[in-house]
Hints:
Elements lengths: L1 H13 L9 H8 L5 H37 L1
Amino acid sequence: MQIKFFYIAVLFLLFTIPMEAQCAMCRAVLESEEGQKTAKGINNGIIYLMIIPYVLIGVVGYFVYRNKKKTKTS
C-alpha cells in the first residue's frame, strides 16, 4: 500500500500541467506589457504561494498517519 502511494505521488509531481493563476484585473494590466516577463513572474509567485498550504497539510497528515500507525502496531 505504501509503495503504491509513493509511486502515485511521484507521478503527480513529475507530470504537471502549466497553469495561469492571475485574477482578471491583474491579467488585464499585465497583458498589455510587451515580452510578458512581469506576467510570468507574478504567475510563478502566485503558484508558489498556493503550494505552501498544501505542503503544510501534507506534512501534518504524514505525521498523523505515522503516529496512528505506531500506536496500532504497538
